[in-house]
Amino acid sequence: MSEKADQIFILLKDWLVSFLPAGWQHVAGVLLCVVMIVAVYPGLFALAVLLERKGLGRMQNRLGPNRVGPFGLFQPIADGIKSLTKEDIVPLRADKVVHFLAPVMLVVAVFMGFAVLPMGRNMVLVDLDASLLFFFAMGASTEISIFMAGWSSRNKYSLLGAMRAVAQMISYEVPLLLSSVAIVMMTGSLSLVKIVEAQNQYTWGLPHWYVFTPWGFAGFVIFVIASMAETNRSPFDLPEGESELVAGYFTEYSGFKFALFFLGEYVGMFGISGLGVTLFLGGWSSPLAVLNVVPSWMWFFSKVMVWICFFIWVRGTLPRLRQDQLMNFAWKFVLPLTLLNLVVAAVWRFMGEGWLRWVVCSAVLIVVYAGAGLSEMRRKKFGPRSYRYAE
Amino acid sequence: MSVAFWLIAALTVAGALAAVLLKNLVHCALAVTAAFLGLALMFLELDAQFAGFAQILVYIGAVAILVVFAILLTRGSETPEKEIGVFSRTWLAGLIVAAAVFAVLGWAVLQSAAGLPHEAAVPAVSVQQIGQALMGQYVLPLEIVALLLTAATIGAVIVAMHEKGDAQ
Amino acid sequence: MTPLGGYLLVAALLFAIGLAGALTRRNAILVLIGIELMLNAANLNLIAFWRFSPHPEALTGMMFAIFSIAVAAAEAAVGLGLVISIYRHARTTDLDKMNRMKG
Fold first, then answer.
1. Assuming Cys at both sites, which of A219, C41, C49, C79 could form a disulfide with C14, CB separation 3.0 to 4.6 Å?
2. In three state form, how does the secondary structure of chain B look?
3. Interface partners of A (3+ CB pairs, < 8 Å)?
4. Chain A, 186-215: which have a CB under 8 Å from a chain B CB?
């Protein structure tokens, strides 16, 4: 019974495709999966937008939207209708072709990443040998579209926002990739399906998720920080900081194109959360061996939603980082720690099974991370605040 | 030859032509990004998946961004004056040389068309084989490329750094 | 025209276009774009020959192309750093104006 619930989407697809002649079945199956992905993730996007507005509202001691529907549940529908019917204003001196193509390119690049995420047992659209590399290649393509958006608007604020965003994204791309290299080293494969299968084993009922190992936990922390910066989420959202740059690189966008940017940003967040879940949190495997009765895709989506809630929580809690603080943090703090994580993962692999490698690796990581963190804090003197008033 | 090949070739050549012919520098940079994408698709068509994805990651994700930043930092996005134009004084010589090179290469390819293999089995290359080759037979080039990249990083930073006493 | 011949012709065309761009444009950055196109055309040649070679499991062509991609990225970085440095000194990126060795 749970086996059927687990594979329900595969069985559904096979049943629907069986109505077609044999030559068309493979193509139709793939197209059906693509349609499912393109339909499900914007739906999750609506849910995430609602969660964000209500959640942020509660954290800021106010109610979020609560007019449209019970507890504001139909707010995304109202937002969608608003975006679709707003007038599409393009600045007179803007570069029309590039202005039009930028949101399109962003949405295409972020949706391509979902082609390789394993969303459940046997539920991956394309099982590539180098699927992790493909995902990162698609993530790198989003940077060009952000630059296109900022430059084509012929607006100083947009350009500044776009350059900041691109500089931030390329800086944090390196820790993102390096923290996944440790995972690849352990699994011995770039294929996301194999990475999840390697984590799907249980010892004494506890899973072999990589986040439960010392190097995996350190890598997870780095991945979370880097993924927050990659998707321009608070506290790394200076490029779209409302109080500084109007709206950053999508200042001059209105109506449907703005909705596309918004969609692209959130779906990108889902994509990178999905990758993080696959790499560190075991993908579709359940936390305890006894909970395997729950379908695998349900585990995947719940883990992704937990990650999104964590993002929203951090957005409501931490203040924004300044551009130079952000870049310093990336190059001088996160990158050396990522390299150390890689070395510790290598040490783990070559030390062989046993309790000794746990102690050694944990000790090294804790000492260095805590030491680095404390030394960073000690350098800044936190005293009572002094005010300067205009004379 | 398949439709896919012709479409991808058309995209690549169109992107390359646009990159060298357009007046606005940023348009040229975006056109060359399209050419890079076309090349990545060609690599995928040739069953070289690792090279194709590496091409997207490195060229579109890094080199194109570098070019765009350089254009912005050197005020290249302002339109050039009408009387000077975008092509150099010696453009005819350059065009003749490029046409001659293409003629020679094209003649060489068409001349040897008889000896080129028609069909070849799809090579089953896995990323693990690439990794083992990189660590086994090609470990020396790998280390040298690592040194080269370090030297290039340090060199680029030093070359582009503000000198002391320069007006900011 | 065999498939391999088709790929080689496209690579030759790209090389010629890159060469034309590097030789005829004024702006230094477009020269660099032309150079990148030439390097890409050479990579295409390498991969095409690797694909149709009698021993593709030796991976020589693919390795060559991957190293070439890495080196080209490094060279683009240094080249663009040079262009930015020259712009700071000469206030122009027009190569026709930089025809003196005197600084």
1. C41
2. CCHHHHHHHHHHHHHHHHHHHCCCHHHHHHHHHHHHHHHHHHHHHCCCHHHHHHHHHHHHHHHHHHHHHHHHHCCCCCCCCCCCCCECCCHHHHHHHHHHHHHHHHHHHHHCHHHCCCCCCCCCCCHHHHHHHHHCCCHHHHHHHHHHHHHHHHHHHHHHCCCCCCCC
3. B
4. 188-191
CATH number of domain containing B60: 1.20.120.1200
Nearest CA distance, B150 vs chain C (angstrom): 9
A102-138 per-position pLDDT tens digit: 999 999 999 999 999 998 888 888 888 899 999 999 9
Residues B138 and B74 in one domain: no
Query: ipTM of the predicted structure?
Result: 0.91
Does residue B132 share a domain with residue B75?
no
The CATH number given to whatever domain includes residue C33 is 1.10.287.3510
pTM score: 0.90
* pLDDT for B168 beyond 50: no
Contact C30, C17 (CB under 8 A): no
**What number is the average pLDDT over the span B119-127?**
80
Domain assignment present for C102? no
Task: Give the tens place of pLDDT for each residue, B4-49.
Answer: 899 999 999 999 999 999 888 889 999 999 999 999 999 999 989 8
A244, part of any domain: yes
Number of domains forming the structure of chain A? 1
Q: Which of residues 37 through 76 in chain C touch B, CB cutoff 8 A?
A: 37, 40, 43-44, 47-48, 50-53, 56-57, 59, 62-63, 65-67, 69-76
Q: Is residue B69 domain-shared with residue B3, that is, in the same domain?
A: yes
Digit-coded pLDDT (tens) for B52-76? 999 999 999 999 999 998 888 887 6
The residue in chain A having the minimum alpha-carbon distance to the alpha carbon of residue B53 is A134
CB proximity under 8 Å: A 102-161 to B? 128-130, 133-134, 136-141, 143-144, 147-148, 151, 159
Counting the structural domains of chain C, the total is 1
Domain boundaries, position A319: 89-374
pLDDT at A387 over 80: no
Domain that holds residue B158: 125-168
Question: Which residues on B lie below 8 Å from C62 (Cβ)?
Answer: 48, 50-51, 125, 130
